[in-house]
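To make this tangible, this section ends with a sequence with its structure tokens:
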Amino acid sequence: MIKMIHILLFVLLSVLLSSISNASVNDFCVADLKAPDTPSGYHCKSPTTVTADDFVFHGFVAGNTTNTFNAALTSAFVTDFPGINGLGISAARLDIAHGGSIPMHTHPGATELLIMVKGEITAGFMTPTAVYSKKLKPGDLFVFPQGQLHFQANSGKGQATAFLAFSSSNPGAQLLDLLLFGNNLPSDLIAQTTFLDVAQIKNIKARFGGRG
């Protein structure tokens, strides 16, 4: 476990040193989370109000996997960790219970690096012409290129844990299941565009709180 943490810290430091941002010009730009977010990140806190606590993230621990996906993501994004504002880097901890998964999703603004710590995860991403998927064990790394549709599923017998590093302080995420079934997009339109059965679509909507 300690070795995996050292690997994660090395990867995060490498990305940090290679990033080019306003923060690198100004040493740092701790996010003022009370101000609005902008395309270039949050405004900087006044240097006189910055403390060492702004550069520390607490609580990188296992999340509650009792949910629809049987999985939990503990994020260390800019809204959780103001000190990374403008540095082009963030992290997360992924815990997936037996049989759980993180469904198809994308990060429009970031490349993702997965670092396996415990258990077994089958991870992969897709292009229009190919699927790149692999079973991962502790010590393995897998990279998901920016914007690619990808997934992670527990394919082992117990709980699986991985650390994630992102090339953005706020990578964002679009989950395909929630986009299709978690809103009021009409079921007949979903059926027409996906070739799924309307009755099945309504059952899935009930699971995700969708309407229509």
Remarks:
- Strands lie at 71-76, 90-96, 101-106, 112-118, 121-126, 131-136, 141-144, 149-154, 160-166, 174-175.
- Helices lie at 2-18, 22-25, 176-181, 187-194, 198-208.
